[in-house]
Specification:
Blueprint: H1 2-22, H2 24-48, H3 55-68, H4 85-107, H5 113-137, H6 142-167, E1 171-173, E2 177-181, H7 182-202, H8 208-236, H9 251-255, H10 258-272
Antiparallel strand pairs: 1-2
Helix pairs in contact: 1-2, 2-3, 2-5, 2-8, 3-4, 3-5, 4-5, 5-6, 5-10, 6-7, 6-8, 6-10, 7-8, 8-10
Length: about 270
């Protein structure tokens, strides 16, 4: 298992970083593929809970959210029809809602409001959140900031694991995730801050205090994302969301923290830079 994890990371991380560095359509397409795989996984989780998500609706809605990011340059606007970012996102949300509500009316009562909620939530949770990786890459010094988010997120996971394993005494969320500890959570935040500051010292694009704040945000929000996905898996009664990544489980298992840290860092940068 450890060998598979190492090999997957050895291959996957350089490929993903290259796509972020290259940017444009190749990165957008790769995020779309990751998003579609994530939607398939969350559909499996809903199915285990007895909720019938409308898979085509969730896939199309997620595609709308991800591709809308393509028409936002540097978080402001893109030359295509000069649409402002708020209008692009609003249009994506409107089209998604109309499509899903039309399906609800068409097949009622076999498709319930619970199913509709699961469908729309899934497209937001996977598609809209994932689109922020592309949005982050389009900011000024985008590669640097994506690298910052990745370093902070992965350092959180790694440090939380090792600190929790060796020093964990107080359970963080005993019902939800019995192995996670308060000491591990603190270690994860500390690891995120250290990684963020190191990235800042290597290539400083903003004041060091901003890197500290990014580390605190990513270290905290990333662990919340991890616990949220654990909640979904526990409700579904499964260990992993999927098995597409050898040694890591599914897309949601690998990106559960990143899909929350990317948006929070993106909006922090939009406010402060």
């Amino acid at each position: 298992m450890l060998l598979y994890r190492v090999l997957s990371a050895f291959v996957g991380i350089p490929v993903f970083l290259y796509l972020v560095w290259y940017g444009g359509l190749p990165l957008l397409i790769s995020i779309l593929i990751i998003t579609f795989l994530g939607i398939l996984e969350i559909n499996r989780l809903w199915d285990k809970m007895g909720i019938k998500m409308w898979l085509p609706g969730a896939l199309v809605s997620s595609a709308l959210f991800v591709t809308s990011a393509y028409f936002v340059e540097d978080g402001v606007k893109y030359s295509f029809a000069q649409l402002e970012s708020g209008i692009v996102l609003g249009l994506a949300i409107f089209l998604s809602l109309i499509m899903n509500i039309f399906y609800l009316v068409k097949v009622y009562p076999s498709f319930t409001f619970t199913d509709l909620s699961a469908t729309f939530f899934s497209s937001i949770y996977v598609g809209w959140l994932m689109s922020h990786i592309y949005l982050l890459s389009q900011t000024s010094s985008g590669f640097h900031f994506v690298l910052l988010v990745l370093a902070a997120t992965w350092s959180t996971d790694t440090c939380a694991y090792f600190v929790g394993t060796n020093f964990g005494r107080h359970r963080l969320a005993p019902v939800l995730s019995p192995k996670k500890s308060v000491e591990g959570a603190v270690g994860g935040v500390a690891g995120s801050v250290i990684a963020s500051v190191l990235v800042g010292y290597l290539s400083q694009h903003m004041p060091i205090i901003n890197y500290v704040v990014v580390g605190l945000l990513a270290g905290t929000i990333g662990q919340i994302g991890d616990l949220a996905e654990s909640a979904l898996k526990r409700l579904a009664g499964v260990k992993d969301s999927g098995n597409v990544i050898p040694g890591h489980g599914g897309i949601l298992d690998r990106f559960d923290s990143l899909i929350l840290t990317a948006p929070v860092v993106y909006y922090f940068l939009r406010v402060t830079l």
